[in-house]
Write a structure and sequence with these properties.
The complex is a heterodimer. Chain A has nine helices and twelve strands. Chain A is of the alpha/beta class. A six-stranded mixed β-sheet of chain A has the order 5-4-3-6-8-7, with helices on both faces. Chain A has a four-stranded antiparallel β-sheet with strand order 10-9-11-12, with no helix packed on it. In chain A, helix 3 links the parallel strand 4 and strand 5. By secondary structure, chain B is α+β, with helices and mostly antiparallel strands. Chain B folds into three domains: 205 residues, Rossmann fold, CATH 3.40.50.300; 88 residues, Beta Barrel (Elongation Factor Tu (Ef-tu), domain 3); 101 residues, Elongation Factor Tu (Ef-tu), domain 3. Helix content of chain B is 18%, strand content 34%. In chain B, helix 6 links the parallel strand 5 and strand 6. The two termini of chain B are 42 Å apart. Classes of the chains: A alpha/beta, B alpha+beta. Chain A: GO terms for molecular function: ATP binding; sulfate adenylyltransferase (ATP) activity.
């Protein structure tokens, strides 16, 4: 090995080394999507191999659909060896729920649903003043995890979504109260995943940690993955609130001063109808969506999620309590 | 931008207040990876705090405590792409007590960007981070000599700091070190070359990152730790063979082709690859780091934890020596009974002896009978079952392992097989 010192005229220090002697590559180079797919499948298999009772969070949203697609690949030709779980806020888009049920049926999966509405009806939870139910999902989620005695929970969270998520490990330990402690996370070394934990604790596993929104859409395009139709441009009755287009529906009714109009929109994220906004978009095909996302100047959450605008640390606070 | 581009994994390291988060923010901002709403938020908070300009560190310091204390606590991952390449960036904190996060970031990095403050030069933390990079055999290290705008006679100071780091790097056997004078605050030589450092004619940080060669993990012997045995039996998917029996795993290194002769470690039984699957796609060959399912010719006993490897691979061993980075608050003493995870196999292990601790100031090995948090030391260990380990110098995956606490599963140490 040699290290040549920086000289002012030649600029950066350069060295030669044994590492430079890379060998011969002869197979087709793997693309970024190939690498992300390989990592996601590895995470799913490793959690399935180490833990007794994993479960996969499946809402019908694009990230959970891609995660489920990876799970199908991970175990093929055997079926996915664990159930899927959905925390239904009661404010979900009907067409997304229909898609969820159809997908579960096609793959022969067992679907566990925990209804936030039940918790509100019997008084365990109270409706918030702003009407959004996203933060209300935490208790029902932790309850469902406890009831199912699930020790590993796959989530479709991505680190590019949000600043607090950017800090979370691929395998993330939750204490007996379901809480995330961002200051005391396990080091995640090489590709050696460690989902071991004490009884009462569980882990969250995020196979899509290193994917960006654009990666997800390119993968959907490459693999021909079906999504709920509202991800593509369609006409919808909407009104403006907090700078977003909210759909007119049973859970999001316009107030007196809010004008309703019919616009060509699509959804970049799909969550609670009361706080998930649509964006103006003519993108009706997956190729058009890929092009649109590549050129977008707003993050998907910035463009579409009212609940993340509550404060700078809204997501961190929800996550610490046990949220997705 | 093409998604065919290669992906480069980089980790940042540096001491507190060297301006690491600012550099990362600058890199993201100047390479146009920051979207309008993220930038609006940074400007709004900066204004609320009475700052005159936007505080770039706010782009990565995402946790409440980080914003309150103005420091980075935990590794943050960021993604950005230029026309030439896409990047996964692990922003690692600089506190002494958080060296384990640097180990975390460096373990998967192709390049470590190490910051030093031009006014302070090479400090203990710099030596520690260079040692970690050398230990984990990170292929490239870039020394970003930051705050170059704040020193008199910047050229001489830059050369002095770069020479100091190069001397340490030489002592550690680091493969590749390049130094660049930067100002993260003003953006000098981060993305664009700076006119204020006219004495420096080298490339900017981003230019170096875009042009670094990435090692091919598909080089080397084929090695696939088995994660799961796939046996659909009665529940087979339509069109598939009901008697299917395959071994699912991710190639650590090398290439597997249908028909290749392989051995299964630790047993050493030999057979051939009968089929390779990626999902429902039957493929001719698979290369690291792909996740595939392998069918074998003979009906031999293979289970999770075994390694399907080239016939030339070394046999499994129970006793070996290793270097540890101790990551736990409770110190390690000889005789400790722990769990060891290597590939997909976890086995009980006894630490038979501590043979030395690395003194990062003198860069010498000293005798010791204890390893404390953040210590790097040499050990002899004996495992309950034979493990197909390789020297870390030969294989970054075959030579890496974790030590785990048997009671709660916590990760205690990063281990590197010696030899």
């Amino acid at each position: 090995m040699t290290i040549t010192l920086a000289s002012a005229s030649s600029g950066a220090v350069t060295t030669s080394s044994a590492y430079a002697a890379a060998g011969s590559a002869r197979h087709t180079p793997l693309t970024q999507l190939d690498l992300l797919e390989a990592e996601g499948i590895h995470v799913i298999r490793e959690v399935a191999g180490e833990l007794e009772r994993p479960v996969l969070l499946f809402s019908g949203g694009k990230d959970s659909v891609v995660m489920l697609h990876l799970a199908v690949k991970a175990f093929w030709p055997a079926p996915i060896p664990f159930p899927v779980l959905h925390i239904d806020t009661g404010h979900n888009f009907p067409e997304v729920l229909a898609f969820r049920d159809r997908t579960v049926e096609q793959l022969g999966l067992r679907l566990v649903v925990e209804h936030v509405q039940d918790w509100i009806d019997d008084g365990r939870l109270r409706e918030r003043a702003d009407g959004t139910r996203n933060p209300l999902q935490t208790q029902p989620l932790l309850h469902a995890i406890g009831q199912g005695r699930f020790d590993g929970v796959f989530g479709g969270g991505r680190r590019d979504e949000e600043k607090a998520r950017a800090k979370e490990r691929i395998i993330s330990l939750r204490d007996d109260f379901g809480q995330w402690d961002p200051r005391n996370q396990r080091p995640e070394l090489w590709n050696l995943l460690n989902p071991r934990h004490r009884t009462g604790q569980h882990v969250r596993a995020f196979p899509l940690s290193n994917w960006t929104e654009l990666d997800v859409w390119r993968y959907i395009e490459r693999e021909g993955i079906e999504l709920p139709a509202l991800y593509y441009a369609h006409e919808r009755e909407v009104f403006e609130r907090d700078g977003m287009w909210l759909a007119v529906g049973p859970h999001s009714t316009p107030r007196d001063h809010e004008q309703v109009s019919v616009r060509t929109v699509r959804y970049r994220t799909v969550g609670d109808m009361s706080c998930t906004g649509a964006v103006d978009s003519p993108a009706a095909t997956v190729a058009e969506v890929v092009a649109e996302v590549a050129a977008s100047t707003l993050t998907e959450r910035g463009a579409t999620r009212a609940d993340d605008r509550i404060s700078e640390a809204a997501m961190e606070d929800r996550k610490k309590e046990g949220y997705f | 931008m093409t998604h065919q581009s290669t992906m480069l994994r980089l980790a940042t390291a540096g001491s507190v207040d060297d301006g690491k988060s600012t550099l990362v923010g600058r890199l993201l901002h100047d390479s146009k990876a920051i979207l309008a709403d993220q930038w609006d938020a940074v400007e709004r908070i900066s204004r609320d705090r009475g700052l005159t300009g936007a505080d770039l560190a706010l782009l990565t310091d995402g946790l409440r405590a980080e914003r309150e204390q103005g420091i980075t606590i935990d590794v943050a991952y960021r993604y950005f792409a230029t026309e030439k390449r896409s990047f996964v960036l692990a922003d690692c904190p600089g506190h002494v007590q958080y060296t384990r996060n640097t180990v975390t970031g460096a373990s998967t990095a192709d390049v470590v960007v190490l910051l030093v403050d031009a006014r302070k030069g090479v400090v203990e933390q710099t030596r520690r981070h260079l040692a970690v990079a050398a230990l984990l055999r990170v292929p490239h290290v870039i020394l970003a000599v930051n705050k170059i705008d704040l020193v008199d006679d910047a050229e001489a100071r830059f050369l002095e700091v770069a020479a100091g780091a190069a001397e340490v790097a030489l002592g550690l056997g680091l493969a590749d070190l390049r130094a660049i004078p930067v100002s993260a605050l003003h953006g000098d030589n981060v993305v664009d070359r700076s006119a204020t450092t006219s004495w420096y004619s080298g490339p900017s940080l981003l230019e170096v990152l875009e042009s670094l060669p990435v090692g091919e993990v598909s080089d080397g012997e084929a090695r696939l730790p088995v994660q799961l045995v796939i046996r659909p039996q009665g529940a087979v998917r339509p069109g598939a063979d009901p008697d299917f029996r395959g071994y699912a795993g991710r190639l650590d290194s090398g290439v597997l082709r249908r028909g290749d002769e392989v051995q299964v470690l630790p047993s050493g039984r030999r057979t051939r690859v009968a089929g390779l699957w990626l999902g429902d796609r039957n493929i001719e060959e698979a290369a690291a780091p792909q996740s595939v399912t392998v069918e074998l010719d003979d009906d031999i006993d293979v289970s999770r934890g075994d390694v399907i490897s080239a016939v030339t691979a070394a046999p499994a061993v129970r006793e070996f020596t290793a270097t540890l980075t101790w990551l736990a608050d409770t110190p390690l003493r000889p005789g400790a009974r722990l769990l060891l995870k290597h590939g997909t196999r976890t086995v009980p292990v006894i630490i038979r002896a501590l043979t030395g601790r690395l003194d990062l100031d003198a860069l010498e090995q000293h005798a010791t009978d204890v390893l404390s948090l953040n210590d790097i030391g040499a050990v002899e260990l004996v495992a309950a079952e034979p493990l197909p380990v390789l020297p870390y110098a030969v294989s970054r995956h075959g030579g890496a392992f974790l030590l785990l606490d048997p009671s709660d599963g916590n990760t205690l140490a990063a281990g590197l097989v010696a030899g």
